[in-house]
Amino acid sequence: MPLFIKTVVDSLGADRIFLLFLIYSFVGWVSEVLYVAAFVEHKFVNRGFLHGPICPIYGTGGIIILFLPVHIKQTGISLFISSMFFCTLLEYISSWIMEKLFQAKWWDYSQMHFNLNGRVCLLNSLLFGLMGYIAMTYVQPSFKNILFMLNDTVTYYLAVSLGIIFLIDLFTTIRKLVDFNASLARLKEFSDALKERYTTESWFRSGTISEMLSSIKERSATGKTSFSMTLLNKIESFNHPVKAAENIINRFPTIRSTTYPQSLEHLRNRVHESIRERRLLLLKKRNARKNRKEHTDCN
């Protein structure tokens, strides 16, 4: 183990380092949520990879910066550049690993200036450098003092307890991501079967999955072609994505599947349409309550 890393481990201890990882993960999660609420969705969206209020990539970045040699952290310029470089490298590697594991590109900066394969971009890199500088210069000393207010026994059991919760959340999230990928595979298999069965029919539209499903529903409504209830029920199920799929698409709005792009695009469109329908229904209910109140006041 390099001496500068051993020094940090000896001064803080593994338990406190893990708690710092969770703290920085939480701070990163708050930053993501506030940014999305202020500039993108204008509402609360859990942008974390896990279900809990943490973004592990920020925690990992914070620990990497914490482990930098002392002489690098002593000057603002070197700290800024190092934070910028290592956190950008971390984001690129994380994007690549997640794509290989789940056959999906979870974020895409292709529309941003000075991006690298859509995985990282200059703007984010500059923000990483700024956040690293602020964290090590102003935030880390306070976090360190707070953690050392706890005795070693309390620190140990707190780290173990939160570690168990973290692992449960991680396992649950991975399982749901695997299920999500499996649902995309089932949708592709189903659409391929429809295309093979009905591609010669003049009424069948095979441009996109949504068009395929819609053309069958429309044909069924005319009564000119008889379809089994099993087939129609499958179409309905694929037209109404489960809550888990909606959560993933909301958290990662630019997610792209490298294996099932059409399946993901269909689910994304259905999620957006479902959200619009719920908003319209909510608006109608509000207008109905307003009309009833005005009618009551008039009487």
Write up this protein.
With 299 residues, the protein is mostly helical. The chain is 75% helix and 3% strand. It has eleven helices and four strands; from the N terminus they run H-H-H-H-H-E-E-E-H-H-H-H-H-E-H. It has helices at residues 3-12, 14-40, 56-66, 70-73, 76-102, 122-147, 152-198, 209-222, 229-239, 243-251, 261-298, and strands at residues 104-105, 115-116, 120-121, 256-257. The strands form two sheets. Strands 1-4 form a two-stranded antiparallel ribbon. Strand 2 (115-116) and strand 3 form a beta hairpin. The N and C termini lie far apart (81 Å). The mean pLDDT is 88.
- How is the main sheet built? 2 strands, antiparallel
Return Rg in Å: 25 Å
Structural class: mainly alpha
Q: Taking strands numbered 1, 2, ... along the chain, how are they ordered across the largest sheet?
A: 1-4
Enumerate how many helices there are, as a single number.
Answer: 11
**Level of helix content?**
over 70%
Q: How many strand units?
A: 4
Uncertain segments are none
- What percentage of the residues does DSSP assign to strands (E)? under 5%
Helices and strands, in N-to-C order? HHHHHEEEHHHHHEH
Could you report the average pLDDT, rounded to the nearest whole number? 88
A few lines on this structure:
The protein is mainly alpha-helical and 299 residues long. Helix content is 75%, strand content 3%.
Give the topology.
Elements (H helix, E strand, L loop, with lengths): L2 H10 L1 H27 L15 H11 L3 H4 L2 H27 L1 E2 L9 E2 L3 E2 H26 L4 H47 L10 H14 L6 H11 L3 H9 L4 E2 L3 H38 L1
Antiparallel strand pairs: 1-4, 2-3
